[in-house]
Amino acid sequence: MTAEIDRQTRILDAAERRFLVDGFERCSVESIANDARVSKREIYRDWASKADLFVAVANRIFADTDVDLLVARPENRAMRPTLAFLASHLFDLFVTDRNRDMFRASIVAIRHFPDLASGIHSKRLTAWAQFGGYFEELIGGNKIQVASAYAAANRFGSLCVEGSRYLLGYPAPAAPMRAMQSAKMVDLFLTGYRASAASPPAYPIGQDQPATPISATPPETRPPVQTRMSPQKQAALFDALLREFLEKGYHRANMATVATAVGASKATIYRQYGSKEGGFEQVVMRRVQQLTETKPFALIPDETLETALARLCRNILDRHLTPDNIAIVRALIEESRTFPELGRQYYDATLALSVQALRMVLHHYDAAAPDDLTARAFHVLATYGSRFIAFPTPPNDDERAALSHEAAAIFLHGVAVCRENGQ
Predict the structure, then answer these.
(1) What letters, b where the CB count within 10 A reaches 16 and e where it falls short, cover 28-65?
(2) How many folded domains does the chain comprise?
(3) Is residue 52 domain-resident?
(4) Which residues of the chain have pLDDT under 50?
(5) Which of 5, 203, 342, 363 sits most deeply, having the most CB atoms within 10 A of its CB?
(6) CATH number at residue 8
(7) pLDDT at residue 256, rounded to an integer
(8) 135 in a domain, yes or no?
(9) What pLDDT shows up at residue 128?
């Protein structure tokens, strides 16, 4: 290794450590230089900015997680064993600290540097070039019927990693449970939820990590510190605090800005919420409370089960894509090390709405009831997992309609052409 390559490698190693621990915004070029034992001038000689260095780190991580199917693919080249391997491999990579920290660090880039975020998102997609190529092979061999290999690969990947669940504070399950989850997701993807529901439960009796019960029980929130503020003043303060956190995220949010917006002092804010942390908690938990009060999904007479599910998927997707929801989820992912329980509570509240509506629709049509893991998979399909959390541009109306019909069709029927065995 030449001295120049060694120097660049040390810089990239240091940058990865600092970006993944501190996040993009908290990390400074000076801290990277100190860690790499180089000067800031040496860093700027190869990378024009901190953003450029961040992209270089992202590229390296995505390259390391690329899958060489020619080497790693099972000897049994049948579709189901290969997909089972891919499902397990995807999940194992996704829940590593390195990947989750990379996702967390990139959230700030999405908020403040949309061009940078688009580049990172593109790299994340192209890192799995052979993965998508395998789905082209399945389409060409008339094994699966989907709109495109790209869509199939993304849908399958989202199912395998359960969307944003493990980005929002949930610990990864133990290895035996991962294998069972992967098998169920392959069944669901190929032959629809009835086949998945008929397979062994993902959390058999005796395991030490049962599935989290899905409910919409109103959360217990820490009451604000009592003040003499009028209800109108409290509402104005909360709205200003909400906007500050949603627009800037937790770290960059400035309590002085909030105080100025409502003609109050920082001391008033701290008397009301106790601390910046308390204010952030109240903002998120107020939203959780609002989600429990959401108007239930309504059925329409004479529509088919698939039409009702497509409409439910659209309802879930539209709620997921509201600017406030996207901003809250991004903030919670960004701060998942600091507020893991808060992230889990918010995720559970959004999930509960989807699952309760799904169970109601299936019961109305006398369709089989899904287990909890399969019901969670429906939520992932309806929201398209973490895709629109990671991508700066939301889909338009026509794209949302197509995505919702696609999600319902996959959930009900799967994508395999031969659905009896999915081979």
Answers:
(1) ebebbbebbebeeeebeeebeebbebbbbbbeebbeeb
(2) 1
(3) yes
(4) 201-219, 420-421
(5) 342
(6) 1.10.10.60
(7) 94
(8) no
(9) 56
Residue 87 lies in a domain: no
Q: Could you read off the pLDDT of 176-209 as tens digits, one per residue?
A: 899 999 999 999 999 999 865 555 544 433 333 4
Residue 19 belongs to what domain range? 3-62
Reported pTM? 0.85
Q: What is the pLDDT of residue 31?
A: 95
